[in-house]
């Protein structure tokens, strides 16, 4: 089983209203990884373009 890291980010130039909010991105990435049998080992989230946050599963 492959281990992967996922990264989500919202650009100030591309509003969240386009269906690409951080939770939407994370959900899509998690579903994609599950469909391929990947294990997510960590998730990096960049919500303010300058502040990178990490959540470890």
What features would you describe in this structure?
There is one protein chain. With 57 residues, the protein is an alpha+beta fold. It has one domain. The protein contains 1 helix and 3 strands. It has a 3-stranded mixed sheet with strand order 1-2-3, covered by helices on one side. The longest helix has 15 residues. It starts with a strand and ends with a strand.
Outline the fold blueprint.
Blueprint (H helix, E strand, L loop, with lengths): L2 E7 L12 H15 L2 E8 L5 E5 L1
Parallel strand pairs: 1-2
Antiparallel strand pairs: 2-3
Average per-residue pLDDT, rounded, comes to: 81
The backbone outline, from C-alpha atoms, is elongated
Task: Provide the number of structural domains.
Answer: 1
Number of strands: 3
Query: What class, by secondary structure content?
Result: alpha+beta
Stretches where pLDDT falls below 50 for ≥5 residues?
none
Fraction of residues in helix: 25-40%
Please outline the major beta sheet: 3 strands, mixed
> Which series of helices and strands comes N to C?
EHEE
- The total of helices stands at 1
Distance between the termini: 16 Å
Determine Rg (CA atoms, Å): 12 Å
Q: Name the quaternary structure.
A: single chain
How are the strands of the largest sheet arranged? 1-2-3
What fraction strand?
35-45%
């Amino acid at each position: 089983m492959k281990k992967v890291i996922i990264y989500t980010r919202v650009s100030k130039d591309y509003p969240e209203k386009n269906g690409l909010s951080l939770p939407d991105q994370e959900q899509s990435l998690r579903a994609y990884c599950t469909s391929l049998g990947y294990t997510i080992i960590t998730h990096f989230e960049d919500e303010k373009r300058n502040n990178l946050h990490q959540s470890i599963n």
